[in-house]
């Protein structure tokens, strides 16, 4: 079971893992999600469409590695693996589309 809190009533809503899709591998604690219910029964939970996460492990890029569209695997803070461009390093924050699981860009700021 996972617990989600209603930000208005502070009510804790227990949700079975089976209602959470693959996109939840990108969700961190305290991240706002949309919980959909009908007559008090939860039928779906949606994370934000885009999240910014920190790369915790990836192979270093090498100078001169400029092959177009070349990617490498990177693990983010939630433990999920994403294919990223060669210039991304450990500690970088990246923006990910939770619907497709794809790297979008290096996070700004």
Description:
- The chain is mainly beta.
- It has two domains: 2-46, no CATH class; 50-106, Nucleic acid-binding proteins (OB fold (Dihydrolipoamide Acetyltransferase, E2P), Beta Barrel).
- It has strands at residues 2-5, 12-15, 34-38, 41-46, 50-58, 71-76, 81-85, 93-97, 102-106.
- It has a five-stranded antiparallel β-sheet, with no helix packed on it. Strands 1-2 form a two-stranded antiparallel sheet. Strands 3-4 form a two-stranded antiparallel sheet.
- A hairpin with a 6-residue loop joins β1 and β2 (12-15).
- It starts with a strand and ends with a strand.
- The mean pLDDT is 89.
- One of its GO terms (molecular function) is translation elongation factor activity.
- Residues 51-106 form the Elongation factor P C-terminal domain.
Short description:
The protein is mainly beta. The chain has strands at residues 2-5, 12-15, 34-38, 41-46, 50-58, 71-76, 81-85, 93-97, 102-106.
Task: Based on the model shown, name its key terms.
109 residues; mainly beta; OB fold (Dihydrolipoamide Acetyltransferase, E2P); five-stranded antiparallel sheet; two-stranded antiparallel ribbon; 0% helix; elongated; translation elongation factor activity
């Amino acid at each position: 079971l996972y617990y989600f809190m209603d930000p208005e009533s502070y009510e804790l809503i227990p949700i079975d893992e089976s209602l959470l899709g693959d996109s939840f591998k990108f969700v961190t604690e305290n991240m706002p999600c949309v919980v959909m219910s009908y007559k008090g029964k939860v039928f779906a939970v949606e994370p934000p469409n885009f999240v910014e996460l920190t790369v915790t492990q990836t192979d270093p890029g090498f100078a001169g590695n400029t092959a177009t569209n070349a990617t490498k695997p990177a693990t983010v803070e939630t433990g999920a693996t994403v294919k990223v461009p060669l210039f991304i390093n450990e500690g970088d924050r990246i923006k990910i589309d939770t619907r497709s699981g794809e790297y979008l860009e290096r996070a700004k700021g």
